[in-house]
Structure formats: C-alpha cells, structure tokens
Amino acid sequence: MKRKIFFLTIISFVFIFSISLLIYAKDAQIEGENLNVRSGPGTDYDIITSVNPPEQYPVLEESGEWAKIDLGDHQGWIHQDYFSITEESESQNDDKKMEEENERSSDSVANSTETHKQLDNSIAGKKIVLDPGHGGRDVGAIGASGGFESDYTLKTAQVLREKLEEHGADVYLTRNNNQYVPLTSRTTHTNLLRADVYLSIHYNSTPELPEVQGIDTYYLSERDQQLAEYVHGGIINETDMHDRGIEQRDLHVLRVNHRPSLLLELGFISNETEEKKIQSRAFLEAMSRGVLIGLEQYFR
C-alpha cells in the first residue's frame, strides 16, 4: 500500500511539474505600415529598419510601451500602438513548428530538385560582394507607401546572402545595418577583397509615372556583359517580373570597380503593386534563386 501511494505521489509530482513548464511565447503581429524599429525603447533611439503587416516577430522583452523583437539577424524595439500580441504555449508552438517544418521539407525537396537541375555548385568558394544601395542619411528613393529604398535594399541583400551562402559562396555586405557608406568605400572594399563578383542592389522609382514596373540590369565593362545576361535572365525567369533588359551605363560604382560588377534595379517602388511584391519573402526568395542560377552559369 505504501509503495502504491509512493508511486502515485511521484506521478502527481511529475504531472504538476510538467504543467508548470508550459511557457507562453509572445509574438508581435505588426499592424502599422512601415513601422520604425529602433535601437532602444524610445523615439530618441536610432531607426535601424522598418517592418510591415502582416509580418510577425518573437517578443524578447518589454519595457513600458515598447517591446523588443527578434528580426533574425538583429533585434530592435517597436511601440505597442502599432502591433498586437499573440500568445501560444510552447507545446502548441512545437506542434506548429513541426507542421511547418514538414511543409517546408516537402516544398524544399520539390524546389531543390528543380533548382539543382540547373546548378553544379560552381559558386562554392567564390567571393561575392553585395552592396545594398543607400543607407543612413541617404534613404534613396521613396516608395508609394512612403517606404525607403535603403531599407528594401538591405533586406534584399540579407536574403540573397543566405541563399548564396547555402551554396558555399563567401558573401560580404558593404553595410549590415542602416548606416551611410560612401560610394568610394563600397568599391574600394570590393577591389581590396579581389571579389569574384560585385552586385549593387537598388530599387527604381518614377513617381511621375507610377504605372512603370520591371527589372533593369546595368553593366559597364564589356567583360561583364555575359555576367549581366546570366544574372538578369535568372532573375526574370524566377520572378516573372517585367523584363526591362540589360544596358551598358557609366555608373560610379561600376566605373571605379576593377572587379566583375553589376548594378541591379529590382523593381519600381513608385508602383504600388510592385512595391508590395518586392517586400514579400516569396519575391526575395525567387529573386535570390535567379541570381544564384545566373552566377552558377557565369562561373562554369
């Protein structure tokens, strides 16, 4: 009898202890368009990037009316007036993650099979410099929604870096946050690294012609024409964006660059529909696949 009571006590303790371990994870559901993310909990702190609905980010901590969120490669603070909190238990979260992993795994097998038909990992070990245009006090073009080109180019470079690194490339960014970097510094960095390819990332804008859309690719040196054709063709094929073609143009970052180099204009943020599209993860993934395929062709 005593042994039975002992076992019942142990089972009850384990059950109560396991319930107490249920942790409720908080996520911030973004509700404000182009919501500023700051380096600290207050408007006196620097803006480091912006987020948009329906994006959702894990909440790391809260301080008064501010919450610190995890953006993946960095962290920042947002004001409570522009997001709502969603909570779920860790056990629910694990189930959800497992379902998402299973879905991703199936999609990944399909995508990977298709992509690997075109890839031979010739990019492995190559030095690629990604230059997110503008930054800091130089916000670049302003989109139809009021979003800054400098924010879009940085996010684009970060997603592209992930894709290229997955295939063994050594990737360098000329800036990793919202900072101003002079044009000369960007190209000097590339030349000193003796990079195999330099890609300057931009978005276009013609507010006076908001219906204009599509992707342009610019090169300067004749040696880079084939690089432009491969990369531009890959992006167009993967994104199904309007093809505005490639063009030889005398641009500063191409003129003073001694390495194979291109400037990519990846869409018009003055076009409301296109601006929304270029903010989506689906577009950034497709664009990154296109660049990867183009570079693989170039390095063969």
Keyword list:
300 residues; alpha/beta; SH3 type barrels; Aminopeptidase; five-stranded antiparallel beta sheet; 8 helices; 40% helix
Any overview of this molecule?
The protein has 300 residues and is an alpha/beta fold. The chain folds into 2 domains: 21-89, SH3 Domains (SH3 type barrels, Roll), CATH 2.30.30; 121-299, Aminopeptidase, CATH 3.40.630.40. Helix content is 40%, strand content 26%. It has a 6-stranded mixed beta sheet with strand order 9-8-10-13-11-12, sandwiched between helices. The radius of gyration is 23 Å and the shape is globular. The termini are far apart. The model is unreliable at 11-24 and 88-113 (pLDDT under 50).
* Count, helices: 8
SSE pattern = HEEEEEEEHEHEHEEHEHEHH
Q: Catalogue the unreliable spans.
A: 11-24, 88-113
CATH class of the largest domain: Alpha Beta
